[in-house]
Structure formats: C-alpha cells, structure tokens
Design goal:
- This protein has 76 residues and is mainly alpha-helical.
- It has one domain.
- The protein contains 4 helices and 2 strands; from the N terminus they run E-E-H-H-H-H.
- The chain has helices at 13-31, 35-43, 46-52, 63-75; strands at 6-7, 10-11.
- The protein has a two-stranded antiparallel sheet with strand order 1-2.
- Helix 1 crosses helix 4.
- The N and C termini lie far apart (36 Å).
Length: 76
C-alpha cells in the first residue's frame, strides 16, 4: 500500500482509510443515501480537505465528531 497520509513521520494511511469509511458510513445512514454517493460528496468537502492536513490532528477525533463537522459545513 502506498503511503498517502503521515503524521510525525509515521504512516497513518490505513488509519485514515478506516476513519473515512466510518465517517461515510455514518453520513450515509444519517442522510439515507447510497455509500458511494455519500463518499463522493464527502471527498469534495472542506471537512475532507481539513482531514487530509494531518498536522491539524482532526484525523484523531472520533468519526462522529468529524461527521458532525461535515453536517455543520453543509448547513452553511
């Protein structure tokens, strides 16, 4: 597997992939949408862009917290 995400020199790619899956699962269930459609929307969001900047440690928050951030973003 290619290293895509790192934090303090450590590869956290697998952790991030699992976290993204959990977040999208929660959002799809909440919004009663298809997983793939929800994933596409999430990957286009400011919340996902913030999640990619691993130095801000948003990735270390719970999936529920990040999903809530995404929902707040959509309300704006």
């Amino acid at each position: 597997m290619e290293t895509k995400y790192t934090y303090n020199g450590e590869d956290i790619t697998l952790d991030m992939m699992f976290k993204i899956e959990q977040i999208v699962y929660l959002l799809a269930k909440l919004e009663k949408k298809d997983f793939d459609a929800t994933l596409a929307e999430f990957l286009d969001s400011a919340t996902y862009k913030a999640l990619q900047r691993t130095k801000n440690v948003l990735w270390a928050e719970s999936s529920e917290y990040i999903a809530d951030e995404y929902c707040r973003e959509k309300q704006k």
